[in-house]
Write a structure and sequence with these properties.
The complex is a heterodimer.
Chain A (H helix, E strand, L loop, with lengths): L1 H27 L7 H11 L3 H21 L4 H7 L3 H12 L6 H19 L3
Helix pairs in contact in A: 1-3, 1-5
Chain B lengths: L2 H34 L7 H12 L2 H21 L4 H8 L2 H13 L5 H18 L13
Helix pairs in contact in B: 1-3, 1-5, 4-6
Classes of the chains: A mainly alpha, B mainly alpha.
């Protein structure tokens, strides 16, 4: 039960956080210049967007859940299972960012979910 | 040079960097948390001593530095490539996490777990073979 709740936070809060950050970054615009000064300016600009802070809050929740679960489960079990965020990510990108998901991409996501199921069986 | 080709030239090297940094960060976090002991309570009072032990671990900071590097690379990628492309593509890291867990943490990985991780990677490759930006380009997947 404890494990299921923690995985829920890792997958759902983590994905929602990444979607929020992605939304913020699209607001900042494409990066053309990779000099450290420009990158710093670009990071500071992104921190002015509320979506960025929502994303950081959600990703923090996911991060502490990850730490908790890593205290009693193997890294090679926890990280692959958290790949469930693929399915969550695809649905979220479609619903909230209006991204189009091609059929090939859906097939790939289905395979990722199959792989996660197999890894889940190896839980000790 | 086509738009897609230009995007791939800067997208692929950054994806490779994130594929190494992200898993390395998680491996260090795992090493730190195994040293702290099982977190079995969600009460704040119980979490305080655990948190102080976590913060005192050098590995946690090493992990955080790797993950911050990963985060910055990930943000850069997201300014031009769609989330539904970046997330799956960077997640070739599921293969490197298995290798690093075995090498650094000595985790024994059963054949079934290798199979699961491989299936995840095949899924990732299928996803990665589509255009980085799905919002503007017409359907050519």
């Amino acid at each position: 039960m404890r494990e299921a709740v923690l995985f829920f936070f890792i997958v759902v809060a983590g994905t929602a956080g990444e979607l929020s950050v992605s939304r913020a970054m699209k607001g900042v615009g494409e990066v053309h210049d990779f000099r450290p000064k420009s990158i710093l300016r670009f990071v500071l600009r992104s921190f002015r967007l509320p979506w960025m802070w929502l994303g950081i809050a959600l990703m923090s929740l996911a991060f502490f859940s990850l730490l908790a679960i890593l205290s009693f489960r193997q890294v090679s079990f926890v990280v692959p299972v958290s790949a469930l965020s693929y399915a969550a990510g695809a649905f979220g990108a479609k619903l909230f960012l209006g991204e189009r998901i091609s059929r090939n991409r859906w097939i790939g996501i289905a395979m990722v979910c199959l792989g996660v199921t197999i890894v889940w069986w190896t839980r000790e | 040079m086509t738009q897609t080709r230009r995007l791939q030239l800067k997208t692929i090297p950054l994806i490779l960097i994130s594929v190494i940094l992200g898993p390395l960060g998680n491996v260090f976090l795992g090493k730190a948390m195994k040293g702290v002991g099982s977190v079995s309570s969600a009460r704040i009072l119980d979490l305080v001593p655990i948190a102080s032990r976590v913060l005192a671990s050098g590995y946690i900071w090493l992990g955080i530095v790797c993950l911050l590097g990963f985060f910055v690379v990930h943000m850069l990628l997201l300014t031009w490539a769609d989330y539904s492309y970046v997330q799956p593509a960077t997640s070739l890291s599921y293969l490197s996490i298995a290798i690093l867990s075995y090498l650094v943490l000595g985790e024994m990985i059963s054949p079934l777990r290798w199979l699961g991780v491989t299936v995840i990677c095949v899924g990732v490759i299928l996803v990665g073979r589509t255009s980085p930006s799905t919002s503007e380009a017409p359907e050519h997947a």
